[in-house]
Amino acid sequence: MPEKKNCLFRAEKICKSFGAVRALADFDIVIEAGEIRGLVGENGSGKSTFSSIAAGIQKSDSGHMYLKGKEYRPDGTVDAVDHGVSMVVQEQGTITGISVAANIFFGKESMFVKHGILNTREMNRTAEKALKDIGVENIAPEQRTEKLSFEDRKLIELARALYTNPGLWIIDETTTALSLSGRDILYDLMRKVKESGSSVLFISHDIDEIMEMCDSLTILRDGVLTANLKKEEFNADKIRQLMIGRELSGHYYREDVDEHISEDVVLEMENVTAAGIKNATIKLHRGEVLGIGGLSDCGMHEVGKILYGLIPPQQGRVLKDGREEVKSASWAVRRNIAYVSKNRDQESMMPICSIRDNICLPSLRDMAKFGPVSVRKQKAMAETWSEKMEVKAASVSAYCNTLSGGNKQKVVLAKWLAKGADILILDCPTRGIDVGTKAAIYQLIETLKKEGKSILLISEELPELIGMSDRIILLKDGEVSGEFERSEGLSEAKLIQKMI
Ligand SMILES: Nc1ncnc2c1ncn2[C@@H]1O[C@H](COP(=O)(O)OP(=O)(O)OP(=O)(O)O)[C@@H](O)[C@H]1O
Ligand SMILES: [Mg+2]
């Protein structure tokens, strides 16, 4: 078939299965030069599978791809990059143990080798420039990546993808890993790539963001193409319906205003100074949803870690029920405190273990109180909770590293619900979660609250904070900068004033 004049990339009848799971079935897509094309679909619908095939990370079972009219069969990611296709992956894509610069130029080190010697100074200098070019000045190129935050590592991935001036830049579910300022960097870069005549394939669960940024949109459902829309056809309800196959009924956020929060403080930090936090006092009450927000480096993620016993305070105290000092994370788990990290693969789950092992892990001690813990009991527990959370997988024996991003998150939440946690510290719990499941998680938070459980909701999504919290505490430069009660007139603008 002759290519249309403007066509940059075309995929035809792409199929990919993993055992019995059919991730993509006869998937077609055309990406024009100079466009930002969105790709949306529920968790597990095949978005990452397709983008990783296009970026040379894995191979399709059948089907063809074409770049500027020529057949394109990437043999690995380096080959894909050489062809001008570069991707920012959904999960963490930097390598630990090596420097920022080594990550940016991974596989391209030969650029800096002269007479068999790697010129590290030159590599660092070029890395600094690559970072500066994308508007990042606070990351030192010689630093090792494991010391950096999740967001900073994402920014390194952006720099790595862009220094090659890709013709097709694939961004898989990256915005939710970024704070507001990181997002602005990303959006600017996407616009620049488009203006230069190159193309972007943009995967996101945020429909508003998709409608704002994209020129056209491809929708996937269960590995099958359901629709292609042009910008003038964009309509949020229609997009959701095409993704899910039904109308999303009911409300999204909480609608009640609970004016009777218990006086009991279940978890608190009192004048705490610790890594990233200065003299902060934060109290979580029984039955309360307490939102914590702010800009990227404000310390909000540290608040979760301090309350869970992962970061010890240098000054001040962390108390459970106003009495007992929180000693460590394992101490916290035994007292039914749960923590969901923003950095899912590294801190929230065991990726090379099964769904069953992940869900049962925090409960094993409790289960063992009633005699030996049989595999049958574990399987029953895992099945109950993965069904409740609608985890999409062949069985609970599937390894978590084979799950889609959103399904991993469901497993992480399931393990704490199975444990019956009373206090839940949730750091960006809806990161990478599709609209349908997001609504389910919000309903879950509401139900947990009604059961008298207490929730600390750390979030970079202001509508989520406003929609779900009884009270919101904002941080700025590690200090508490504002506090708001749940009320009808609470706007994003009011929160932002206290954040910057
Ligand atoms: N390596 C693998 N082994 C087994 N199954 C896999 C593997 N990779 C993906 N799958 C399955 O293929 C399906 C599609 O997954 P994919 O990661 O492409 O979804 P996605 O649309 O990116 O979802 P999300 O929005 O949650 O990131 C899922 O059912 C997933 O479990
Ligand atoms: Mg994905």
What would your notes on this structure say?
- With 500 residues, the protein is of the alpha/beta class.
- The chain has two domains: 7-244, Rossmann fold (3-Layer(aba) Sandwich), CATH 3.40.50.300; 265-499, Rossmann fold (3-Layer(aba) Sandwich).
- It is 34% helix and 26% strand.
- The protein has 18 helices and 22 strands.
- The strands form five sheets. It has a six-stranded mixed β-sheet, sandwiched between helices. A six-stranded mixed β-sheet has the order 18-19-20-15-21-22, with helices on both faces. It has a four-stranded antiparallel β-sheet with strand order 2-1-4-5, with helices on one face.
- Strand 16 (315-320) and strand 17 (324-325) form a beta hairpin.
- The radius of gyration is 23 Å and the shape is globular.
- The model has no long low-confidence stretch (mean pLDDT 92).
- Bound molecules: adenosine-5'-triphosphate (ATP) and magnesium ion (MG).
Question: Which secondary structure elements does this structure contain, and how are they paired or packed?
Answer:
Layout (H helix, E strand, L loop, with lengths): L6 E12 L2 E12 L3 E5 L6 H8 L7 E6 L2 E2 L5 H6 L2 E4 L11 H5 L8 E2 L2 E2 L1 H14 L16 H13 L5 E5 L7 H16 L3 E5 L3 H7 L2 E6 L2 E7 L5 H9 L20 E10 L2 E9 L3 E6 L5 H8 L7 E6 L3 E2 L3 H6 L2 E4 L3 H5 L6 H6 L3 H5 L6 H14 L16 H15 L3 E5 L7 H16 L3 E5 L3 H7 L2 E6 L2 E7 L6 H8 L1
Parallel strand pairs: 3-10, 3-11, 6-9, 9-10, 15-20, 15-21, 18-19, 19-20
Antiparallel strand pairs: 1-2, 1-4, 4-5, 7-8, 11-12, 13-14, 13-16, 16-17, 21-22
Helix pairs in contact: 4-5, 14-15
Bound molecules: adenosine-5'-triphosphate (ATP) and magnesium ion.
